[in-house]
Queue: 2 jobs
Job 1
Amino acid sequence: MTYENDPVYQMAVKQLREVAALLQIPDDVVEVLAHPERLLRVKIPVRMDNGKIKVFFGWRSQHNSALGPYKGGVRYHINVSEGEVVALSMWMTWKNSLAGIPYGGGKGGVKVNPKELSPRELEELSRKYFHAISRIVGEDVDIPAPDVYTNPQTMAWFMDEYSSIVGYNAWGVVTAKPKELGGLYARIVSTGLGTAIVAREAAKKVWGGVEGRTVAVQGFGNVGIYAAKYLSEWGAKVVAVSDSKGAIYNPEGLNVEEVIKVKQETGRVQNYKGAKKFITNEELLELPVDILVPAAIEEVITKENADRIKAKVISEGANGPTTPEADIILRKKGAIVIPDILANAGGVIMSWIEWANNRMGNWLTEEQALERLEHKMVENFGRVYDEWQKRFYDHPMRTAAYALAVERVLKAMQLRGWI
Ligand code: GLU
């Protein structure tokens, strides 16, 4: 299957076409934006612990470089497809453009269930994947980072593999590295923190603040954990969280620190003792809460369930959790859906700070890095919110975010003579 037939890719193109129609962008230009500049598919033969070779496949999609080197994560997931990787690379172009950072958009993926691999097999897979894409990445060319089921250890292997090819310590070729290898601790919390910051800013508009507001978080990985942690620290009441095995609910509120501990020690939120009820991931989305944070996977809020969603503020920690049809239904209901390209940009913004820091010889402190992130997230939320109120009020907030993002990319392409 080519990427053009993939439903996630088609959703990304649909979002682009809708905003292009509003901005009166000609069809030929939309066609340029709808496809990646380069797409590489690689074979990754891994010698498994049982002595046999197993072949995996991976991709790197480089969508647009008008604003700078390609930037975006690499995910390891059994459902990764070429179309999903291309769609995610397009979303990175808009995310980086909207964030106002000097990057284009890229994304990578390997079709694998990393939980089935031993640490040694995982290291071999990671090194071989990076080796296979090494000719098209680089500190000023394409800068990968973690995504679903990849982490600072994966980045350390990527960085080491690349450094051994080029013959020097190429710190800047990946971001979200471990602290000892030029990373920032702040990068670990940054995506979830950013998702929490924009939820808090939206809560200020709706209720005057986030204190006492109820929150449900779908997905308790790196994004969901820190979104829940910060929102509860700021006085919100987190009543439900979930992971891929199920959800827990307590209308009186969960002890977030405790749930994080249980999740980290046992791998399942349902092992937490303070839940009133076990529910499904689908039920969690429809709970009577003020704020919903979908922080798991794509297409969980659809035209089938959008009508039953009660949250007034939805902060998209995941990429693509709301379909375009659901976005319109939620707009009609008066909900604010803070779009992924704004709500989960904290990760890549911190990646930019780390990358710049590496190139300056590690200049910034952790504290300064966090201050910059806070400042940028608040500023970006304000810009998109104002644009939405001024130009696109009848549309989902996503339309305003897309308009700002696409316009910046188009301007750069025009100046460079590409269109
Ligand atoms: N994978 C993250 C995202 O989807 C982070 C990308 C990065 O830091 O480059 O935004």
Job 2
Amino acid sequence: MTAPWEAVIGLEVHAQLLTRSKCFCACSTAFGAPPNSHVCPVCLALPGALPVLNAEALRLAARAALALHSRIAPVSVFARKNYFYPDLPKGYQISQFELPLASGGWLQVDTHDPKGNPLIQRRVGITRVHIEDDAGKNLHGFGGWSVVDLNRAGTPLIEIVGEPDLRSAEEAAEYLRQLRNLLMFLGVCDGNLEQGSLRCDINVSIRKQGDSALGTRTEIKNVNSFRFAQHAIQFEIARQIAVLSSGGRVVQETRGWDDKAGRTVSQRSKEEAHDYRYFPDPDLPPLRIDPEWLQKQQDELPELPVDMRKRFVDAGLSAYAAGVLTSHPAVARFFDAACKLHGDPTRVANFVMSEVMRDSTTDGLEARFTVSPEQLAQLLKLVDAGTISGKQAKEVYSAIANTDHSPADVVRDKGMAQLSDVGELETICARIIEQNAKNAASYRAGKTAILGFFVGQVMKETRGSASPALVNEILKRLLS
Ligand code: ADP
Ligand code: ZN
Ligand code: MG
């Protein structure tokens, strides 16, 4: 950024809670069903229908809030957020306003020095976490018509409002990635951006470096891609700097990201902003939290990704590797399981990152791996024992991928075991030295680099099956 300016960014993230049924009725939340097939009097807002809070939605919301170190209120209140839009049959969204489920807290965002190790840990403040329900979906261009699908109407969401603590587009994108990652580790959200499971509103302002007051912000609404978020913020920072540098003023307004044009565009100004006329929803009683229940949620929190990364770094992995291996909960579980069986985190990490992750696929919280942790651990143990070389391990890996074959069986069936019979190797080495007397003489005269030539000859002779370590040792002994 140009020296005198500092960017200030605050994000409001909407995450879809991973419940089977909707927030206030029993309709299914399954994605991709025929339009308007998952609806009932409550989410269609038929007169007289009454909402009842989904206990699982509350559990997941509380779990997220606790993992964000947020304070859960003993009593919170559902409020109506009134606005008119065709995808909102009730004419209001059920949300929480003055008394949200949780307030305060932070997300720890880990980065690392790209040149090497240190794990850099930073806290980004959380303002509040509250529960709300989602709207339906308008679809345009059906033979000139616009139609609405209400399957999504009433889906439970949490909104996580962040403090204006972020200072660059990259930092904001990293915050989003790690928040998504945390919610996925908690099983609170499937993190599926394409299906809209995570969306954010981005608030951006700039100010003079060193100022403590915040500048006037603009808000970019409903961004569902981290790449879009990063580009939109970059654009918006540059735009605002240009406005202020030329003596203008930033107008508080809502803007949208036009990815094709690569720019944000004005949508509506503060004067045109909605007045949501919030008021407590008379159909829903205040939400009272039982302290014992809350303690249970706290006790049931799993190991958080930040703690897992720290554990991996303490076990000898680089901060980079720890980040890669915790990038998806299923990958982290796979890695952990393989480490328990094998015992050397660095060896397991290298193989998982270079081979297994390349071939595995993830879909939401699910993942498919080419091998099991057991197969992987057995494979690496064959290398440790000198039965096969590291290069052969990749070949065995390809052979066992997507099968339930054991690595040891493959090595046996393919006759791949390394030649590590000392007597047999000594005979071969001696013969090769004899056949290359000149080279042997120069080695003995001090040109020790020629050892590589001998190793190559032995490997050729044994068609790659000799243990390289053993060959080196024998050749050195025979040549000295
Ligand atoms: P709303 O958007 O509903 O009016 P708030 O005024 O509480 O709600 O702001 C919501 C978000 O905007 C928060 O994430 C906050 O960090 C961020 N924010 C507020 N003021 C600024 C600012 N001047 N610059 C950047 N972000 C801001
Ligand atoms: Zn319903
Ligand atoms: Mg906002």
